[in-house]
Amino acid sequence: MKNRLIFLLFAILLFCNSQFNLFHLIPKERFDYSLVEVSETLVIGKLLNSQQGGIFEDGGFTGVFYVDRDFSNRGIAGRKSYAKYINNEHPRKYYYWAYKSQIGGQAILYSVFDKIFNLDNKVSITIFRMLNSLALSVLLTLFMIWVKRKFGLLTTIISFLILILNYWIFLYGKSTWWCNWVYFLPFVYSMFFFEQNKENYSIKKYVIVSSLLFFIKFWFTGFEFITVFLISSAIPYIYYLFENKRSFYLNFIGRHFLIVILPFILTISFQLFQFNILTGNFKDGIAHLVDAYARRANGEYSYNGEYAYLNTLKQYHLDILLRYIGGSFVNEDFVKMPFIVIIFLGIVCSVFLYVKNIDRRLVITTWFSITAPLSWLILFKEHAHIHPHIDFFIWYCPFMILVIVLISLTMAFLLKNIKRNELKHK
């Protein structure tokens, strides 16, 4: 009962932090911006579009709903549509710019909810945000339960206290667009799956459930942060099953190919179906997907028109990694604490734990997991260049979370030793 109350408290505190910034651990300016973040206005546009048409109006894509003839700036148009939506207005649609790089499955579900219940728009958007905050809070709490089972309550409490200070993981936790919780679905599931079935696990069950979770991720956020998601989802498998044998590598590749392939095909097929509704041509969808990949992966891609300023933004930092290790992981209004600091602490604690022979497998797996965020920063540098308001989040998928566990495990070990020595001298 005591442990259940502790974890219930964890979930409530995480939820309040994400949804309301109750403890002011998220910088006020960033939190205020997250309430009308430009990407979320794409969801608002979709909701307005569905209210005046059908669920699959304009292919069912999210997008910018233009409420007047000012087509000069999508961001401004998005904020105008947000204001109309919040005030329960039914503005005339002058134009709808469909965002075609994702299927927008989350907004399709919101629109279905909207059609069924027809609530006040303020109430609806609040419900959608709260559900996202709740999902993130529950998944992080479940991870804390895993930490408790593996390393004890003291390590868990320390992990929680450090984690809640890391505001990037919570900044867009409520976002109806980013739906950050989906990135932890396979990771948390697999941690429990292998922990509970150490000797007698069903690979068939692992593949089927993981494949379903992958589809949920693709449905909600498409292929956003795809390399991060693919690597982070495989971390539990590596932690529990890794052997430096040819059979391991072959099984690893084969099983995870099966996990990915069906959700990938279903998602692409659905997106092409949307394009067929929108343009009447599947080929347009294929061409757009190829172009979307090129834009995210190619740092030399050039923007035109109202987004030409992004070309300048990409030139501010020659080394993008320096930007992302130099950003603060705690509220800069209190103190600036760059990510490199917590990474350095993680290295020190890793050496300590390895020397003490304390879960060396976790130490090694943690540092392998850094390939998840690095894969995005290197392969999709263009996205990282122009989205510094969100891309810091990828550090937590799951590298930084595991680093926090290493630090907490070390602190718990030292605290227990101090207490043990005190008892000896009494």
Q: Could you please describe the fold and organization of this structure?
A:
This protein has about 425 residues and is mainly alpha-helical. The protein contains 20 helices and two strands. Strands 1-2 form a two-stranded antiparallel sheet. α1 (about 1-20) packs across α6 (about 120-150) and α3 crosses α4 (about 75-85).
CA-to-CA gap between the ends?
33 Å
How many E-type strands? 2
Tally of helical runs: 20
How much of the sequence lies in strands comes to under 5%
* pLDDT averaged over residues: 92
Write the layout of secondary structure elements.
Layout: H1 2-20, H2 28-35, H3 40-52, E1 62-66, H4 74-86, E2 95-99, H5 105-117, H6 121-151, H7 153-165, H8 168-171, H9 185-196, H10 203-221, H11 226-241, H12 246-279, H13 282-297, H14 309-313, H15 320-326, H16 339-355, H17 360-368, H18 371-379, H19 381-386, H20 399-424
Antiparallel strand pairs: 1-2
Helix pairs in contact: 1-6, 3-4, 3-5, 6-7, 6-9, 7-20, 9-10, 9-11, 10-12, 11-17, 11-18, 12-13, 16-20, 17-20
